[in-house]
Amino acid sequence: MRPPVTPAAIAQPTPGSLNLSGDWTARGIGKQLESTGAAAGPAATADGAGVTAMDSAGAWVLHKLLSRLRDAGTPVTLLGLRPEFARLHEAVVQQAAAQAALPAPPAVGRPSALARVGQRAAEAGEQALAMLSFVGETALALAASLAHPARIRWRPILFNIRSAGFDALPIVGLLSLMLGIVVAYQGAAQLRQYGANIFVADLVGLSMLREFAPLITAIIIAGRSGSAYAAQIGTMAVTEEIDAMRTLGIAPLELLVLPKLVALVIVLPLLTVFADVLGVVGGMIMARAQLGVGYGEFLDRFVKAVSTTSYLIGIGKAPVFAAIIVMVGCFQGFRTRGGADSVGRQTTRSVVQSIFLVILADGLFSVVFSALDL
After folding, report:
1. pTM of the entire structure?
2. Cα separation of 46 and 21, whole Å?
């Protein structure tokens, strides 16, 4: 049981004297000390004989009180404190003097534009190195799983195939159909001027199978599934579920990343084929409506215009796009720190970076295939 506390008090029996009493401790200091004014008279003495207890908090309050009185023009002499209280008060006075002697910290203003550019560049470099490290760790985990097939988690893989593949068929099919219609509609006016209506099959076939179908499918999956990966892993990081997995001896990469990677590498080429079919169907509908090209004529020209190489080039891009989407989404999820606002921020970054890297990779593919004359 704690002993009773006598509140610290200040009395002023005469205009030139102060009497201190009670427990000058963190528990005994009262709010009345904050409003104590300067004693009357040109000089004053503070008698501390009545102080029964003192700690560093009480010594600090006593020092601030005497300093305020001195600043107000009343020199105060402290007398009668017990030796141990006097030593504690003297230590507080010396510490306050040492802090006052320190130079004021320089004012921190807004960094210049060049400094902000450098800071952003440094942050981007740090994130690129962290991303590269994450890709390397994932590759090692994948190699270990392939070396020991019993460690592969087939149930999460099948779940991700359904969620990222089968459930995405409606949106991928609808947008691919609309894209095929738009491509044929935009080309129809120009082809009609030169009487080259039949070449709409070349336009739709090559553009959809080689470029648009894999690209639009990857962008849809980046916004749909890549964001879900980042949000799921980010939420687990915030709620410390990932730390709990490590404590239980479960590798987060094997449970959270590899099933998504394997599933999307399988699913995205199939979705690309589905987008190819719907895009060509949309082009056929618009060719029949705008140019009078029948379905039979369209397909006959389509087979001649589109080679197997062009078709396989479009399919071959899909696994690369899938790896980009999974790596970026999971990486941003693992970098989540803080609370729900961080989850939203990392999810947004995952979508933006995924789409940017997918388009960049598609541009690099175009340069390489052009150099190889494919």
Report:
1. 0.69
2. 11
Map the chain to HEC letters.
Answer: CCCCCCECEEECCCCCEEEEEEEECCCCCCHHHHHCCCCCCCCEEEEEEEEEEECHHHHHHHHHHHHHHHHCCCCEEEECCCHHHHHHHHHHHHHHHHHHHCCCCCCCCCCCHHHHHHHHHHHHHHHHHHHHHHHHHHHHHHHHHHHCHHHCCHHHHHHHHHHHCHHHHHHHHHHHHHHHHHHHHHHHHHHHHCCCHHHHHHHHHHHHHHHHHHHHHHHHHHHHHHHHHHHHHHHHHHCCHHHHHHHCCCCHHHHHHHHHHHHHHHHHHHHHHHHHHHHHHHHHHHHHHHCCCCHHHHHHHHHHHCCHHHHHHHHHHHHHHHHHHHHHHHHHHHCCCCCHHHHHHHHHHHHHHHHHHHHHHHHHHHHHHHHCCC
Extract the residue ranges of the chain whose pLDDT is less than 50: 31-32, 34-40
78, 48 contact by CB (below 8 A): yes
* pLDDT tens-place string over residues 171-195: 999 999 999 999 888 888 888 888 7
Residues in the chain: 374
User: What is the side-by-side order of every strand in the sheet holding 9-11?
Assistant: 9-11, 17-24, 44-54, 76-79
Q: Each residue of 109-119: pLDDT tens digit?
A: 677 888 888 88
User: Which residues, 6 or more positions from 271, have their beta carbon under 8 angstroms from its beta carbon?
Assistant: 165, 168, 169, 172, 217, 221, 318
Would you tell me how many other CB atoms lie within 10 Å of the CB of residue 370?
A: 9
Q: What is the pLDDT of residue 146?
A: 87
